[in-house]
Design brief:
TIM Barrel, about 40% helix, about 260 residues, 9-stranded parallel beta sheet, alpha/beta, globular, 9 helices
């Protein structure tokens, strides 16, 4: 019996030693693409698995989505939501049938979209009924959802979790302040968070300063012990659980 217990302890110790220590995964999404061929091209040239969020109401949306897909990048629809405006935008009070029509039209403009995230949406993502409908519709279409968390009142991720939809929530915005110094600081904050909780999801925009920082810093992630991963892998890594800043014991606060 003592021998068996000793053997079991040794095996467990071996497994613990074999497990990766201090894993730190990072996923980066660049929003607002499809507006400028120059900025789109610079974003596409970024090294590693950067996710490209393309707006449907932009002149280059369809062509750039095809180009990005051909380059092996993850494409998502950057869906306009109130207070965003335009022909695709979701607003509180719009009937579900019209929301569905706008979603259909937006997805048609961004081929190869593997999922969606909200563009703006501080008012819309706080609306429980349309968010619940959206998560069910994405489940039906086999698409995932990224809650950009433009408002603390969002219920989007909570509704995704309630329905078992593959999703993640944003942890850090890179470029609320558009200087290279501030963006570098936000990137380091994301890296520190990834080390602390095992993963971090960052969202930025195709500003020249953001692209400059990312082009310089992404090749250095590995030497900092951080791995840049596809958004799909991040979703699998998190397993639909809320991070500590967004809820308790893996459940979102706004249930």
């Amino acid at each position: 019996m003592r021998y068996l217990l000793c053997l079991l302890f040794c095996l467990m110790a071996g497994v613990a030693q074999a497990a990766p220590a201090g894993k730190a995964y990072l996923s980066i999404i660049i929003d607002d693409l499809g507006q400028s061929t120059e900025r789109d091209s610079r974003t596409l040239a970024l090294p590693g698995s950067v996710t490209l969020a393309i707006m449907p109401d932009t002149p280059h949306a369809t062509d750039f989505a095809r180009q990005a897909h051909k380059a092996g990048k993850t494409v998502i629809l950057h869906m306009p939501m109130d207070p965003a405006t335009g022909p695709y935008a979701w607003h509180p009070g719009i009937p579900i049938e019209e929301l569905a029509r706008r979603l259909d039209a937006a997805l048609a403009k961004v081929p190869y979209a593997a999922g969606i995230n909200n563009h703006m949406g501080s008012r819309m993502t706080a609306q429980r009924e349309p968010m619940a409908w959206l998560m069910g519709e994405l489940q039906r279409r086999h698409l995932f959802f990224v809650d950009s968390r433009t408002s603390a009142a969002t219920v989007a991720a909570a509704e995704a979790q309630a329905q078992g939809l593959a999703h993640v929530s944003r942890d850090v915005f890179l470029d609320d302040v558009r200087t290279t110094e501030a963006i570098s600081g936000q990137l380091q904050q994301g890296i520190a968070l990834a080390r602390k909780q095992g993963s971090a999801v960052l969202i930025g925009h195709p500003y020249p300063q953001t692209l400059e920082v990312l082009a310089r810093e992404l090749p250095r992630l590995k030497e900092q012990g951080v791995t840049l991963i596809k958004l799909q892998q991040m979703i699998a890594e998190r397993g639909n659980q809320a991070m500590p800043a967004h809820g308790k014991q893996g459940r979102y606060s706004n249930r």
